[in-house]
Protein: Dyp-type peroxidase
Organism: Kitasatospora camelliae
Amino acid sequence: MTQDLKLRESTEIQGDILAGFKKDHVTLLFLKFEEAQRARTWLRWLTPRIATTKQVAAFNKAFSEARRTSGGDDPKTLKAVWHGVSFTYSGLQLLSGADPVPGDAAGTTLGAFKEGAARRAGALGDSGQSAPEKWIFGNGTGQAIHAVVTVAADTPQDLAAAVTDQREAAAQAKAVIVFQQNGATLPGSRRGKEHFGFKDGISEPGVAGFDEPDPEHPQWVKDHPGTRIIPAGEFVVGLPPVGGTVPVMPGWALNGSFQVVRRLAQDVPGWWAQVAVQLQVLREAKTVAQDATVEWLAARLVGRWRSGTPISKCPFADAPNDPDASTDNDLTFRGDELGHITPLFSHLRKTNPRDGLVVTPGGQPLPEEQVVDNRRIIRRGIPYGQPFDPASEGPGGPDSPRGLVFVCYQSDLVKQFEFIQADWVNSLNFPPRPKPPADEDRRPGHDPMIGSSGRVTFEGVSESGENIYQELQFQQFVHTEGAVYSFAPSLSTLRLLGAGKLPA
Ligand code: HEM
């Protein structure tokens, strides 16, 4: 272990933020306490059980090494159950008896944290079917949420036992379990994929001081070409972020991270039916080849084929049997400024436009360190619900609930998660075209996988080499069913909170 990777040794930063829990079975418990003293007693019981970055990083390293030596199989004997905890604004207030965000913090991450996810919903496109009044947790009008406990395990049995312990501890503390959200990796050939059928969790930012740089390309993580190393302060409060200036934050926040949890329901048959309909529109307009398939268009909405293979590298067909292609993160959108290969509206370009982003329409492409590195998030989501099975009338059928428990960590809610969701995913004009046509007809539109309903512009090149485009109408098939903004404090802050104190 080199001195440079000292964050791997952190016993302060909770696990899952930098060192992902990476478990197949996860439960989130949303708790509300009735009384501060009992809440503190509960926290003193929980704190020694909270996984640290050091523990999780060491486990993940041993697991990867065992996997390598066994030729790729998961080592059955290496198991762990991990716990994490985060608190909402009202949770910190209850535990400490003090105001964690005194004064006016409007417009800052502390302000967003204080307001909570439900009050921030409007700006994030959570309206209509996704409106907070319809949420099953976190809606601000039902039960308040004070704490989110994450339990992650390798087997359903280990998870169930750990969740039972948590439920008993909550009952002793007279806490109400407002909601229990279970999540699990999809089975069989869908392992590692989200419910629409695409491989998920491929592109995560590398973190300076945690991930080993590649000796040839020190801006990338070793053995992960294209995975940029981002300053740790983008994810952990109090460490240097992009630009090096550490923002002034309260003492309780140091070495912690803001957590976003969103239950995103996915209507799988609805989304795929819509892809087929839009393909027909493109065929009739002769904007695509007559033999273009539904899979072909779906891959363009995501930016990767189902296997994970990026369409920027393999535009014509998936490469399902090439493990390197399915995790390939060495992508650039430079040279494809009009989105003729990877459309500008694709989920990939909407959520991580990478290098060559033209920020102002008609302006110059800018490098990632200037405009993208400070927008990254660490995603730790997991699917919930049964995989889609069109033949089933019950579990697995079209009506059974399913989706993604979206979880992400960042040091600034406004600048990172909210910016991606509001200013990129749901912006009609992101990423801007390098040369905008005067009539604005060709704005890319919303993200057609997760964004609000609306128009997107499909651009291509005709057989005779002309630039052609076609407007498509997309409905929304991903809906928000619950959301929480919380904060995962350092281990020292947890100990102080257990004693009823809040470092200012
Ligand atoms: C049901 C909802 C969602 C689904 C099904 C979904 C699916 C996917 C898939 C298949 C990928 C490509 C594989 C990968 O690199 O991991 C991806 C990447 C990504 N998604 Fe989502 N996603 C969802 C929601 C969100 C939300 C709400 C955000 C943030 C606001 C988000 C941000 C990202 C980011 C940052 C990437 C990495 C892009 C890159 O670096 O290339 N996703 N997602």
